[in-house]
Amino acid sequence: MGDGEGITVGRTDHWAPPAWQAPGEVERRLYEAKVRGDWPAFFDVLAEEDLFFADSVARLEARPGTSRCTPYWYSQVRANCLPLLTDGMLPAPDAETAFCRTDLEWLVDGWRDSDTSWIVINPGSPCEVFFPATPAHRALWQQHVRRLEQRGGERPHYLMRLRVLEGSGAATGAVAHGLGLIALLSVSNGDLWNAIDYHGTGYNGEKKRLKEWWGITSREEWRHYQEQLLEADQVRGAWEFVLGVRRSLSRDFGGHVEVDQWRQAAEKVLRRGAEGTEYRLSADGVTKVGPRDGAEVTAQIAGVQRLIGRVARYEKRFRADGLLAEGKFVPSVEAWDYGRAAGMARWGLGARYCDQREAENAITRAGRLARLNYRSWEEFSASYILGRCLHFDEEEFGSWYQDMLEAHRILTTDPGSPWLTIPWK
């Protein structure tokens, strides 16, 4: 069949299939290739995409970082088969079963199971296909992996684009709005932006993400960071201070604020605060804090002046690149936390640090807070990107910025974007 790459169970020749709403582009392409009996095209798609297999949460927790493929008996081929799913076919996460990510290259080079001679792609669906997995067949699959490498090795799944669940994802409502907050990262990372049943990079991948980037290794730690992000407590106080000074000036003077005026106002606020006496509550009781040391205040003022310069330069670049309209400025960078709060909810679900209900509640709450503090998707986006740049970019305008700029352009122009289909308020 085709070039001998596989065997499908069921009719494909001269058969008009019933209409099927594929969950995503990947599944639709697989289905179309199956209907045509075009197995080279089928494996071209598989070479480009992630594949997932089931494992036990209890086993994964007992042996972190490992994975185990479990074959099942399928009467269609009367043999043990390894079932593999594309990400649009993954079921809702539950407490007992996790899914681990792999790809066709691993099936070619790394998978060895003498008791399993078949794989089945998306079992139980209209794009279900069984393939023998003998060494000869795997050699044919390898050609597709090598072909992808010869094209530069860029798997479309990881290219900057909007990926959508077309039949079973959130499209409207509070959860969809909340998921729109993390759409910049979804586009950048190649995730399905509206997947409520989130598995992301697989169970092990999501655990690794949270450990490496956040130091999270438990449900308690996940809950701590989730709440901090929802309260916008991860945003640095200095960032909000300088932006708050400018907001006050803008209200008082009716709009545009010059950088020198902004700097002078910030210095005045800092000096006024340093001259007074305040009382702080500590373990030893109420402590009187007198006027601060002059050198300390001078150093703080210098740091704030530098920060104002950084923000002004980023905003100038934002306007040149279309992230900000002329005359507009970023009111706050709390968006950086609200967007990550929606992401944290999904990452926690993928790592099984929370359940579906908790994740959806956090995503909905993040969306509500963002709507209270921002006036549009575009304003939210510029604020999120500024927070990300202040945290990572160091005015290099490198990938930390460029990736978000490209994602912003996609989300403000793609007809399927939540920023164009879901009203901000």
Question: Key features?
Answer:
alpha+beta; 425 residues; 3 domains; four-stranded mixed sheet
Q: How are the SSEs placed, and which strands pair?
A:
Layout: H1 25-36, H2 39-48, E1 51-56, H3 57-62, E2 72-74, E3 79-84, E4 97-102, H4 104-109, E5 118-121, E6 129-132, H5 135-150, H6 173-181, H7 183-189, H8 203-214, H9 219-230, H10 237-253, H11 259-275, E7 278-282, E8 285-289, H12 294-321, H13 335-350, H14 356-373, H15 377-392, H16 399-411, H17 418-421
Parallel strand pairs: 3-5
Antiparallel strand pairs: 1-4, 2-3, 5-6, 7-8
In short:
Helix content is about 50%, strand content about 10%.
The biggest beta sheet is recorded as: 4 strands, mixed
Number of helices: 17
Taking Cα atoms only, what radius of gyration do you get, to the nearest Å?
A: 26 Å
User: Which structural class do the helices and strands define?
Assistant: alpha+beta
Helical content (DSSP H or I, runs of 4+): 40-55%
| E-strand count | 8
Strand line-up across the major sheet: 2-3-5-6
Order of SSEs, N→C? HHEHEEEHEEHHHHHHHEEHHHHHH
Low-confidence spans: pLDDT under 50, at least 5 residues?
A: 8-16
Mean model confidence by pLDDT? 89
Q: How many structural domains are formed by the residues? A: 3
- End-to-end span in angstroms? 54 Å
Q: What is the overall shape? A: elongated
